[in-house]
Amino acid sequence: MRIVKTAIATLLAILIAEFTGVDGALSAGLLAILGVDVTRKRSLVTISARFFASILGLILAFILFYVLGFHIWVLAIYILIAFPLIAKARFKEGIVTSSVVVFRVFGGEEVSWHVMLTQVELLIIGLGSALLVNFLYMPKPEEKLMEIRRQVDGRFSVIFRQIAASLRDPYHLWDGKELTEAAKLVDEGLSAARRAVENQMIFPNEAWTVYFYMRKQQLDRIEGMLELISQVYQRMPQGEIAALLFDRLSIDVSQEEYTGITERMLAELEQQFKTMELPSTREEFEIRSAILQLCRELSLYLEVSKKSKAPLPLKAAGRKKTLLGR
User: Whole-prediction pTM value?
Assistant: First the structure.
């Protein structure tokens, strides 16, 4: 799509330059190519930087060409002075654009107000065409973001089912590929969400950024859980009960709202832990300790969801005594 927009902006700039009679219509097309960007906000920022960098470069070049003449070595002096000056003025994105107009002036070997005005007109036509095309159309990201979310939620669901299986059977094997895939998808989603925000000039919606950032935080918690799972090397009744939490979480993870079911189940389990007899062996103590720490990691995971997801509006909260028995 960016290639298509670049082609349209280039053609539009050349046609406008030819229609208005401005010399150097092809230069307007080249400036349009340099002006097309991936988002509306970035386009506005970079095109502004390119325009003002070019004006600054033109003024400096006109002074140098007027004083020193049109010699190749003067271009080297221009580069040595102009590039640091443009970068210091925070118009670094416009260095290439300014070079295009300055080299065009050098090729014409003429310093006059008419030449200056022509270059400014080309800048306005070329960069303006790119800005116009960028603002008129940007692909809608909602469908892509929703698809990435479905894939991320699916990977999380598999991860939790695998954790539940490992708690029930310490010899259960899992290659963990879903964890790597989820991390890549979350990074991809964050990039897409940021682009979507940059395309919304008024009242940007940060909901997708919040979602993918939430998942990124939760991945850190999941990695901590997996380290604790590796310490559960025997089947334990507490592990069987804790597996129910992850069974439930593998369902809840795909919900848009925060259901709170897993949180209530976790509270029940913690209460059960307090009423159980103390471990009788060192091995039992280590395993139960790992399961308890796992539950604490799960609590922190749920806390992130609770902050970032809206609560489920119409669910009753009163089924506390039967959750773990289902």
Answer: 0.69
